[in-house]
Amino acid sequence: MFGLSKETQIKLKLLQYLDNHESYVNSEKIAEYLGVQYQTMRKYYREINQQLEQIYPEQQFYVEASTRYGTRLYRGEMNLDQISEIILTGTLEYAVFQKFIYERSFSSQAFCDEHGISFSKLRRKITQINQFLHRFDLHISISHQVKINGSEEGIRIMLFLLMYGLQPYTKSVYSDAVEEKYYRIGHLLANELEVEPNNYMVHLLSTWSFIISQSVHLGYNLSKNDRKNKVPLKEELTGWGNKDWELFNSVLYCFELCPNQAVSVKMDTSTKFKAQKWIKFFERHFRILVPAEKNMIYTMFHRLHLIKNYHFLDGELHSLLYPVTVEEAEQKDTAFDRQFQEFWQSYSKNVQDANNFVKCQSYLMCQNFIPLEQTFEKVHIFIYSKVSASSLQLIKNKIYRYFMGEVVIEFVDDFMDADFTIITEEINRTNFNKRQKIVVINPWVSEKDLLMLAVQLQEFLTHAKLA
């Protein structure tokens, strides 16, 4: 991502992995997950802790590595974005992109002197960044000057995605005076766009408007001599033309960063066809969509069409702005995920441009359309017990609530329809299916009963998938 070094990416992946676990995790398991040696991983722990101790000496955040228990992350009241920002803003990649906000070309020697590196190291770093940028039709050239080349729209969007996407809360791109100015502009833009001026929205709008204003200040105007300038807040957005304002709105719309945002670009026939194909295959694999839901699909493909025009339809960027990665859309193994993979295979064979960005968007949309209970495996259970009807209902409620969010329990009235049977007292089992699992529990359903039942459920689900 953005040409970040492998070491930086592993550190960020390590922090995210630890943050997804409540307690200690086996250190060797982490090393295997990251694809690094155990000693290399311990080196990363030390470097992360040393870097953060300089900023947070009171140990608000640290990685604890214990030979006995494993590794865990303690982050107090900080969130992972703030921690990631500290790591990212210390990289050369970030320094290069930050420089491009203020000047589209700069002295190689001055940059090397400022950061204490050799020219050859800077050249290697630029080569590494270009491997990422080339897919977006952007390129950085390096000789005595370092210069970013490509479409002006693409350069602005790339700088915005870096400054906003990687660090949603970063303030390091501004000086204090500039930050105050654009924070005020962010509030004014929120009012203009009729959205709630919360911290998230104000920061987003101020960052994006700052990127565009800097580009205009450098003389990279998208439009010149507009007969009728439609840009609002002319005193604050000095020098903006109509195309600058259109780009501002278009990016907010196509990346779903601002609610109720609209653009004037109409949907072409090809985009409508792709949306109709998506709807057709969704309804074949899931359910019929109502008109309002179909409109959501048309809007999604309109956004994707605009993103493609900007050359940013890339799966790696998706995880930057949305809460799902390509891996999550491909590697899960729930009933919903298997159903989604079947849908995606059918759809992707029949259209072009069915890349990972579109796949992740489709995954999110399918999740929105499918009730939560349908995303989990369904297990049919028959309960045989001589307890009263009200007591039997209590048993069912306790079992259902315990497994809520993991599997969908459906109680049946006939043991012939059940995946397995639960009994509360020993009975003659000759009438039951010999292949069907029978689990004996207490009528009051203890914690140990539920744990035993969880083991049996897991075994059943594993065998069902293999079958």
TrEMBL record:
> Which Gene3D superfamilies does this entry report, sorted A to Z?
Winged helix-like DNA-binding domain superfamily/Winged helix DNA-binding domain (1.10.10.10)
Keyword Transcription in annotation: yes
Keyword set, alphabetical order: Transcription, Transcription regulation
Which one Pfam family would you cite for this protein? Mga
The chain positions of domain Mga helix-turn-helix read 80-162
Q: Does this UniProt record's set of keywords contain Iron?
A: no
Q: What is this protein called?
A: Mga helix-turn-helix domain-containing protein
Organism, scientific name: Candidatus Enterococcus lowellii
Q: What is the lineage of its organism?
A: Bacteria, Bacillati, Bacillota, Bacilli, Lactobacillales
